[in-house]
Specification:
By secondary structure, the protein is of the alpha+beta class. The protein has a single domain (about 40-95, about 120-360), classed as von Willebrand factor, type A domain (Rossmann fold, 3-Layer(aba) Sandwich), CATH 3.40.50.410. It has 10 helices and 18 strands. The protein has helices at about 10-20, 30-35, 140-155, 180-190, 200-210, 235-245, 255, 260-275, 285-300, 355-360, and strands at about 40-50, 65-70, 75, 80-85, 90, 110-115, 115-120, 125-135, 160-165, 170-180, 215-225, 245-255, 275-280, 300-305, 315-320, 330-335, 335-340, 350-355. Strand 6 and strand 7 form a beta hairpin. Helix 3 (about 140-155) runs parallel beside helix 9, helix 5 (about 200-210) runs parallel beside helix 6 (about 235-245) and helix 6 packs parallel to helix 8 (about 260-275). The two termini are about 30 Å apart.
Length: about 350
Amino acid sequence: METFNRKPMTRRCFLFLWLLTLPFSRSGDASAQDESRIHVSVVLVQLSVAVTDRKGNYVSGLRPEDFTIVEDRIPEKIATFEEGNEPARKLIEVAPSNSSPMTPPTETKSMSTGDAAVSVSPFMGSSVFILFDTSNYMYRGFVFAQDAIADFIRSLEGVSKVALYSYSRDLSRVSTLTSDRYQVLRGVRSTVAGDDAALYNSLLMTVKDAAQLTGRKAIVVFSNGPDNASLVPPEDVAELAQSTGTIIYMISTREAEAEPVSAAVFERMSKATGGKAYFSKDWRDEKQAFDSIREDLAHLYAISYYPQPNDNRGWRAITVKLNGKDMQKYRIRTRDGYRLLQGTQTSSGLVATGPESASK
């Protein structure tokens, strides 16, 4: 799967400095007070996986044993498994980071080691952020864009919460994440057109908001043109989305598609995170794109695992395959890796708990 180039030092330095602003918890003081306490340090990697046949039809009914996950060439054991909007199934318990392999499959809800209890139900509802382009690119079709977004919000099923953000030069959190669809719909009608488009700046802040959530999360970007005001490179946005398990879907118009650089970036960014990019000829096509995203969200397999011991503290490559010769005809779409973000609590992409993660 194609990935962004992660070598330029200026972009890496920017991402590193920005990540330092993410909140994290510290437990060193409590540990010093009670040396007898046993802590669990866990990193949970969560994947959203789409499986389709050669015609693009979704393949349903697959089981955990149909999937093989490899991280940096190390086979991994699936911890939880969920298809579409079905409840998640837990397959293994949490084990301390310095212990032997995970315990056998069990149906208990959590495990407790000493006085530390760790939840193993990561997919507790899905969250969708809609990022609406209200820049001057949107002047001519603003009302039609509002209609398409409103229809998409009404049609979402199996999604626990929805947020609506808009952007031109600045990001506006029109309606923060909520289960109240009417509040979000009112927010859609309250949006107004602005000036220049700082898409990547705004998308980075949206990814940061999504990174703090548990459960599956996706960002649906509705853009009517290229970015002409951002300071943030799109490569950094894509890498953070990959590392926090946030899917990015891009819906853009032909105007953006006619700009080769923007079109290529939109396609690479969505592909890197396990999403899709759509280039619509008219407002009817845009509604069809929203319908396609809704169907995609409803058919994703949500899979998580606790990585086996791995000394790699940088970019970790993930490969997901289907087992059996009869399964090779199917296609898999998911993110292809992540960067270990120490000291964060971004549980839908990575969950880090315990003093080890907090102290780094």
